[in-house]
Amino acid sequence: MSATSSAPVFAGVVPPVATPLLDDGSIDHVSLARLVDRLVSEGVSGLFALGSTGETAYFTDDQRVELLRTIVSVNADRVPVIAGAIELTAPRIIETARRLIDAGAQAIVTTAPLYTLNSATEVADHFRTIAAAIDAPLWAYDVPVRVHSKLGIDLLVQLGTEGVIHGVKDSSGDDVSFRRLIAANDAAGRPLQLLTGHEVVVDAMALAGADGVVPGLANVEAVGYVRLWEAAKTGDWVTARTEQERINRLFDIVFQPKGLSGDATGVGAFKAAMHARGIIDHATMANTVQALDADAVSRIRAILDELHLLPVAVG
Amino acid sequence: MSATSSAPVFAGVVPPVATPLLDDGSIDHVSLARLVDRLVSEGVSGLFALGSTGETAYFTDDQRVELLRTIVSVNADRVPVIAGAIELTAPRIIETARRLIDAGAQAIVTTAPLYTLNSATEVADHFRTIAAAIDAPLWAYDVPVRVHSKLGIDLLVQLGTEGVIHGVKDSSGDDVSFRRLIAANDAAGRPLQLLTGHEVVVDAMALAGADGVVPGLANVEAVGYVRLWEAAKTGDWVTARTEQERINRLFDIVFQPKGLSGDATGVGAFKAAMHARGIIDHATMANTVQALDADAVSRIRAILDELHLLPVAVG
Amino acid sequence: MSATSSAPVFAGVVPPVATPLLDDGSIDHVSLARLVDRLVSEGVSGLFALGSTGETAYFTDDQRVELLRTIVSVNADRVPVIAGAIELTAPRIIETARRLIDAGAQAIVTTAPLYTLNSATEVADHFRTIAAAIDAPLWAYDVPVRVHSKLGIDLLVQLGTEGVIHGVKDSSGDDVSFRRLIAANDAAGRPLQLLTGHEVVVDAMALAGADGVVPGLANVEAVGYVRLWEAAKTGDWVTARTEQERINRLFDIVFQPKGLSGDATGVGAFKAAMHARGIIDHATMANTVQALDADAVSRIRAILDELHLLPVAVG
Amino acid sequence: MSATSSAPVFAGVVPPVATPLLDDGSIDHVSLARLVDRLVSEGVSGLFALGSTGETAYFTDDQRVELLRTIVSVNADRVPVIAGAIELTAPRIIETARRLIDAGAQAIVTTAPLYTLNSATEVADHFRTIAAAIDAPLWAYDVPVRVHSKLGIDLLVQLGTEGVIHGVKDSSGDDVSFRRLIAANDAAGRPLQLLTGHEVVVDAMALAGADGVVPGLANVEAVGYVRLWEAAKTGDWVTARTEQERINRLFDIVFQPKGLSGDATGVGAFKAAMHARGIIDHATMANTVQALDADAVSRIRAILDELHLLPVAVG
């Protein structure tokens, strides 16, 4: 699908939706519906389904479709939905993406190939092959900590100019490169929407020219990001920064688990906090990912309490 | 499936079968049949289907099944067949592995999770989950250049002792670690078969105690590896080394392509040489992988010619 | 030396001084004097002598002392001078640092050990050992691309709280970590001054709370950074961003050399531009570092010309 | 110095000499003399002074000279001595190397530049610059875990052919690359001596064509390596392997410390074992490197005991 005016716009606050699970590891559709409804009600401008925060790599395509159907259904066209098609290479990504588009995804986001050893030329052809085979706008996801290669600025702007990709989610942790991508995109007539995945520097990245943010932490509280983004849009940088600093104290929850894996720690902290706030019914992690211990959960609750984010007991 | 005396043995020369393709990128079953028959005829002791040399990451599961069926059919039970189930995580690997077992794979080999960020504990559970869900012996594939993490010695020996895995294909390029794995496996009563993936040091790794080798280069010529391995088994290390050194001159084909990706270079050189030798009808690479240029192919032919490995013209 | 109110303050724009060389590779003191005088005249608030931009690793301690003496002499106490003592480990750093302090350095900055394989505990002791042995405030320099390890937030704040280090130059390229360091430093009562080494995101890092910047590009033009920083200090973020964007166009000079090393490219572009602007008499690089080709120099001149930064011919 | 027939030959077992320290961290010349005499008496064919096992990075040049003088004096020309000049770049390495040559080093070994960001062309010029400035044969030391870059095969053979370097100590842990270096060196007429730094695969590397080994573990026991090498030279690979396997059980001492840095662990285990065997009087580590705990020392003693390597009490 080529870039047209009818393509859905992903800008502002576009949280990656977490995946609530029942104790047996199956999908908790009730909690997922509650989460999605809450995110949209808090004012987010789009939903990023089946991303890393959604533990998407741990689910089969049948489960991914099941998850996406609930997200799309509860959202009820209030905001646009983009879905991650995380797979090894173009032929496999196309299979997954087509199923997600059938299930209601309005755009697809994917990474460079996994497992393979490719050149930049081959990575460009990878995105071209996918874009040509699916009937939805394609976005590029730059997450070197997982993919182990970085998408270059020239590559991204070239693919944008060709209409192959419509935007980039940047989780590269490289602010110099992201700033240069913004400038190169501007110089090319802004073919790309540019979202940062780093939830603790949104004010700074907004000042630098980002179009939006994909904050995993918004699963715990989205309204702060909405306020931050509104302030930034109006040039009220002091308010934006103040909100960011409050949010960053909340982000300290991800540093409470000790000795666990990256996936157990980050998503685990989000789920523990969501559970403490009553947003989801269980903090169960995807299969094989270790659970937080009680001490970590307790420290996470203390941070929520300090920020007045624990639910008030009714009675 | 627990380790039992009925599990197929993979030892000696177990080449990873390359995937011949027609010019349009579809599977060239005629060339594949010729290749498999040649490998078995040259005396290999097993076949490793759907590995990295087989470009397996670039194929859908339907294509993988199609490939495996031809390999299994042509092999006709002459040697055991192990198949790679390369996917992101346990639930997805299990789906792929079951289809491959149905298609005739006698064992399954897979890696640590891809894309995710896991601890050693989680990686161990990953292998346990897969082994418990499939009806064939499981092997571990250690290839950090693609998976971006290394399987630890303690982890592997523990999983072997539990009967979770039956063997390891080591493509880590870390000879110190491999030597220590051999010693640790010996100390544990040899629960694991240990194969090296490094085709240029087979004599040395045989001396060190490896049980076999998975040489991609055997797609070009397998008989040299068979001779090398026979010599090593009888303690004739001078002959083993001499054969290795001849093979290593052949391996120089992979250094002839310039400026291409890792996948284009290595498998590309194998395919160019196989094509020059008449083993496959086309040197076509998997979709998005770049082709070698004529100069590289010419240099590869020159090496084959020097080693008397080009076919004699009939007339 | 413990942190006291008499310690020199390094904040705002603190450029790393480049090292002009004669054609034979010896130090060009005339150009160096011109450069230092220009930097101070343009309004910088401190000088960072003998850093990476100054090619310090390529010089002997005798040469380093010689360089520093000219910098200190020309500066004539107008702004404070901090000097890099880049060496392998504490005992060697102390030797170098003492010579630099004797030559006029008012503070010393150094990295974690080089070449060795140390734990965080050992790195902390490394800084403690150095601080105890020298008679000047110590700063930590975090530059993982050169040191191949990252200084942790807890480590830095702990060393700040102990009075071991007075500040950090962060060239880690990790904006998430830098933002968290700012917050942790605030929470600890601000024992550290925090400077970013990334010249293209100064507006954003100022918004985030950085105390200053160490911009290599200021060797080419410092006045833009001074304007940027003044605007940021007064909360005029739009002006700060506009100036940053103009500066970032200038930074494109570092992407003009092709196929050279990191050191040849970055410092080489700075020196070529400084030479084109008449700030230094030769663009000679340190011994063994390759020179730019004429095409790269020409492209660099074109960028300077576009930004009206070339000198007007007199006549 | 160009390669001539008068250059000292380093082949066979060339241990890197550890640095015994008194409790106050100063050099323990008595223990050092005992160690050197023991190594030479056990039959080693050369001494590698001031390498990583010697903790050379932690010492000033004055200390390095002091250490080397004792080694040279005790050795008394029985075997050739090569010394590491580990510093940042050519100008600094030359200063150190000249002092070491004056103190009796018969050859110098160094790495690619540290801290800097160089191309292969620049690294080649680095070695050329050093070789031209010193009056002793130069060797290259390839240790990516410390230098964070790998010396390429083409580079090394080119420098060998030019007479710039006389040999290579390979601690790259990349057996495929080392095997290819051996072949490339053979094809070029063997300008280089090739030593492996990996003490647990000496039998295999000898079979592959290595000229010798630099085993840190020989500080604990050298005679096993001497026996191993003698067996390999006579083609008795079964004896070589048997000796290697005994040695590798001894090498398990380096896996007994838990949670310490790389330097604390490896050299720490060697020193603890040397101390237990009575070879050195104190197990003191270089400044800032953490000491082993009593449990680790106890486990190390148990391994020595099992292998009958503890001294017999006299009474």
From TrEMBL, chains A, B, C, D:
Pfam families, A to Z: DHDPS
Matching CDD domains: DHDPS-like
Keywords on record: Lyase, Schiff base
PROSITE patterns: DHDPS_2
Family: Belongs to the DapA family.
Protein name listed in UniProt: Dihydrodipicolinate synthase family protein
Source organism (scientific name): Microbacterium aurugineum
